[in-house]
Amino acid sequence: MDERPTESLRDEHEVLKQRLTRLRAMADGLVGAVDRTEMQDMFDWLVSELLPHSSDEEARLYPLVDELLAEHGGASSTMVLDHVALRSKVRDFGDAIAPLVSGAKGQKARELRDRARIITFQLEAILQLHMHKEEEVYFAAVDQHATPEQLAKLRRGGEEGPEGPAATVGREWD
Questions:
Q1: Last residue of a domain, which of 74, 96, 130?
Q2: 33, 18, 55, 143 alpha-carbon torsion, rounded to 10°
Q3: pTM over 0.85
Q4: Residue 27 is part of which domain span?
Q5: How confident is the model over 110-117, as a mean pLDDT?
Q6: Which site among 7, 44, 74, 92 is 20 to 30 Å from 114 CA-CA?
Q7: In 3D, which of 121, 120, 139 has the Cα closest to residue 131?
Q8: Domains in the chain: how many in total?
Q9: How many CB atoms lie within 10 A of CB 132?
Q10: How many CA atoms are closer than 13 Å to the CA of 120, on its beta-carbon side?
């Protein structure tokens, strides 16, 4: 078999990424004149393609992944990837604000402020979604199913400490 079983899904994601690039470009342009046709086209795409794609993944891919993760482990890997993304965005934010803190001025300062603003929005989106997933799925699982021994371990912290798996899994994000 030459092709990965997920190749068609990967291809769909490539199309989504290209459209997200266009969405971002459109959003960047919202500070000036508004292209109403482009905005409506983008909204129509979100409704007609992105949302059905999400529903299709929930119906076909996620049940299979649930089975595979139950059998082979790694159920929290996607949450660890959120942490990797957060660490990367924190580094990016630090890189953007360091020259500002040091007194950058003029066009360079405007560009850095714009970059810091964008990174702030990205951090907010990642963190809000991450916390929502933890609260709705992880906390609920712990509240409903954890044994007293598991709760005691949670309260005293894991044996891995701050340099556990989240600190070492995939340090690069781009």
A1: 74
A2: -90
A3: no
A4: 1-74
A5: 92
A6: 44
A7: 139
A8: 2
A9: 10
A10: 8
**What pLDDT is stored for residue 84 in this prediction?**
96
Using pLDDT thresholds of 50, 70 and 90, give the confidence band for residue 160: low
69 shares a domain with 97? no
Judge whether 171 and 84 are in contact, CB under 8 Å. Answer: yes
DSSP for the chain? --S-TTHHHHHHHHHHHHHHHHHHHHHHHTTS---HHHHHHHHHHIIIIIHHHHHHIIIIIHHHHHHHHHHH--TTHHHHHHHHHHHHHHHHHHHHHHHHHTT--HHHHHHHHHHHHHHHHHHHHHHHHHHHHIIIIIHHHHHHH--HHHHHHHHH--TTGGGSHHHHS-----
